[in-house]
Amino acid sequence: MMPGPWGDTAERRRRHEIRMRRARVRAARRSREHAERRRAEGLTHQEIHRRRRAGWRRVWGTGAVLLGAFTVMTAHEVRAADDDPAFDTAIALATTT
Predict the structure, then answer these.
(1) Residue 4, pLDDT score
(2) Euclidean distance between CA atoms 54 and 47, whole angstroms
């Protein structure tokens, strides 16, 4: 690494190593605290990961249901003149979930 006009390469390297060491210590502490919390709750890492994914899946699922209901509603408005019983059923299903 070329030294810049602001200082010596060795000094920059020393600061960088100190920063990296602190980051490593911070990460180790976070990992240890996380493991302690997991043990306290009696959950494995896999269970935590699964719960987190299930939460996101629930959020996305809600969005999909709302989008589906909106699509059905719009389609029903377009074809309201036909008075198609299939659309009435779709509306009923979309609004109940």
Answers:
(1) 60
(2) 10
